[in-house]
Amino acid sequence: MSNTPALGKILIVDDDPNIADLLTINLRSEGYQVDVVSQATDVVALDLSDTNLVIADAMRQEFDGMQLLISLKDNPMTAHVGYIITTSDDSERRVIEALDNGADDYVVKPFSLRELVARIRSVLRRHSVRARVAPSTKLCFQSLSVDTSTRTVSDNGMQLQLTRTEYLILVLLLKNIGVPTSRKEIFNNVWKDSPEMSNDRIVDTNISRLRKKLGDVGSYIQNRSGLGYMFVM
What SS3 state is found at 175? Predict the structure, then answer.
């Protein structure tokens, strides 16, 4: 079958040339356009605007597949890209970490090629449905605007760069304007799978950073003693 982008464009990130070649040959035969890089660091500089899916191992590198996942999902320009991690690490902690950071699937090596292709189809179908039917959902306060479909945050039209944690806190507070949200509730929503980290300081520190990045709008995030944080009108 000739190489065609009709079914989607896939980027493989794997420093094992045997696996990269095997995936490339089989995915191209299925009708996908396939690119390959061996280093996760190489992906950051690529234009992924027309890429539908990243399949990454790169777990033994200094900048690994998990860090690449977080980087892509934190960037509104690449948050739309599907992401499958393939790795020999089958620990529950690692699986949970990947899914919580936005991975669409986690496949343990050695894997069945047929099963992986089926999982790829499933991920691409889900992303295609989202692209067709998901409306642009916006949350606004004063001059601040958040588009949750692209995870874009802007103030007076100027895009702001927030970390994943800051973004999640901001969305939670914007969904509850005028209603206090306790530190415990904020923590449970943002760090729900890391109970060992639970303390008030981590919430306060991240909200302090968020306020600074929001500039004047940040002053509207206030702490009601004994109740929690909220945007005040």
Answer: coil
- For residues 169 and 139, what is the distance between their CA atoms, to the nearest angstrom? 13
Q: Which residue has the tokens 């998901």?
A: 134
Reference 55, options 21, 20, 29; nearest CA is: 20
Bridge partners of residue 129, in order along the sequence:
none
CA angle 208, 211, 215 (to 5 degrees): 145
Look up the pTM and report it. 0.56
- pLDDT of residue 100 exceeding 90: no
Q: Where are the alpha helices (DSSP H) in the chain?
A: 17-30, 40-44, 65-74, 92-100, 113-133, 164-174, 183-190, 200-214
Given pLDDT bands bounded at 50, 70 and 90, which one contains residue 146? very high
What pLDDT shows up at residue 193? 60
- Which residues, including other chains, have CB under 8 Å from residue 65's CB and lie 6 or more apart? 13, 40, 56, 57, 58, 59, 85, 87
Whose CA is closest to 186, among 230, 150, 218?
Answer: 230
Residue with tokens 């060992």: 196
Q: Residue holding tokens 């530190």?
A: 183
Per-residue pLDDT band at 2 (split at 50, 70, 90): very low
Query: Between these two residues, 58 and 49, which has the higher pLDDT value?
Result: 49
| Burial status of residue 2 (CB atoms within 10 A of its CB: 0-12, 13-18, 19 or more) | exposed
Question: Over 50: is that where the pLDDT of 186 sits?
Answer: yes
